[in-house]
Amino acid sequence: MHALIVVAHHDPRSLTHSLAAQVAEGLGPSHSFEIADLFAEAFDPRFNLADHAVHRRQAPPPADVLAEQARIDRADALVLVYPVYWWSMPALLKGWIDRVFANGWAFDFNLQANTFEKQLGHLRVHLLGVAGADAGTYGRHGYAAAMKAQIDHGIFDYCGARVLTSELLLESESQDPQQHLRTARAIGRGLFAGQAAAAGLVG
How many CB atoms lie within 10 A of CB 69? Predict the structure, then answer.
């Protein structure tokens, strides 16, 4: 099984990058992975005229978008690891989703025929947000529920993808990072556990 781990952080020494590495480590030798470092790869997150033409079904996706779609198509699981900015994901990751999860690939919307079809029913998604605030702040203001509505449901369910794990690693700037690193490694270990058991690969 193969995982695509997408990281959106400008600092390769950050906790976010360390968490992505731990997810990969947790997979073990029986599974493969690719880490997509959106900042290092200089992915352009700006939704432009070419992307608008794709949405209108007037043009094929640009080469950089096709490359990202192909990476996802090769993966059995998609893992997003990102810091929480203003109670959501960073603009770099949101722009990646804006451009890559395009009409005709992630979903099929035909205005003339008034039809809509979800296209990513095969995709399994795991979300790992790195948050500075504590649980009380997220609960008191409804931030955690809002993020799930916006990201888990609003993006991935809209396309038919299943979010299997959705974690917020809280107090990331004040807590010992080892606890969060252990959580990330455990997520990696469990990423394909269900599929392996179903295939008779584990006892």
Answer: 18
